[in-house]
Amino acid sequence: MRNLIFIIGLLFFFSSCSSDKPAQREEGTPEEQSSSEQDVPSSIAEGKGIGEVKEVELTSPLDQERIARGKAVYEMKCQACHRLDAQRVVGPGWQGITSRRKPEWIMNMITNVEMMLEKDPEAQKLLEECLTRMPNQNVSVGDARDILEFMRQNDGEK
Ligand code: HEC
Fold it and tell me: Are 54 and 48 within 8 A, CB to CB?
């Protein structure tokens, strides 16, 4: 009788152990995955930069209202450092930017500049050339989309 109780005790012991272990592993795995994804985000590898903007759908013909709003933001917040031709002032001139960069990259650069300069190799190259950090201008994603439309017009899209 004592043996039987002992054996039943052993069974409980082993079954509780074996059911605990996989549960712990399941908890651990997603955290490990997400932290390694943060180290090398796939969006950077795809040339989309890093930030809130994951996917931008471009439409044609261009949206004239967006262009007008984008131009107004440009004149207020960007013109001091960016010209519309190819010449660099403080930052690079914008001519040809929409063929050099993906739309997502441009919008992430505008809305998430600190992290772009920290993590994106293309943004870091610009910083090496310009030797000035572009300041965060507190531009919303919607305003960045308007600026992108203005850039497309500046590059001759219709
Ligand atoms: C104080 C100067 C300054 C202002 C103001 C500024 N930028 Fe910049 N910008 C820079 C610099 C410098 C760079 C190059 C990256 C670096 O060194 O930080 C840059 C880079 C960029 C790039 C990437 C250019 C390329 O050739 O790929 C974009 C896009 C951009 N800025 C958009 C904007 C927008 C939009 C505004 C206005 C809302 C703005 N910037 C305001 C200085 C500025």
Answer: yes
The CA distance from 17 to 100, in Å, is: 57
Of 127, 97, 130, 99, the C-alpha closest to 114 is 127
For the segment 54-99, what is each residue's pLDDT rounded down to a tens digit?
999 999 999 999 999 999 999 999 999 999 999 999 999 999 999 9
Burial letters for 10-45: b for 16+ Cβ neighbours within 10 Å, e otherwise?
eeeeeeeeeeeeeeeeeeeeeeeeeeeeeeebebbe
How close is the Cα of 5 to the center of ligand 1, in Å?
Answer: 75
Rounded-to-integer distance, Cα 151 and Cα 68, Å: 11
Q: Is 109 in the pocket of ligand 1 (CB under 6 A)?
A: yes
**Count of alpha carbons within 13 angstroms of residue 136, beta-carbon side:** 11
CB contact at 8 A, 41 and 50: yes
Q: Is 82 in the pocket of ligand 1 (CB under 6 A)?
A: yes
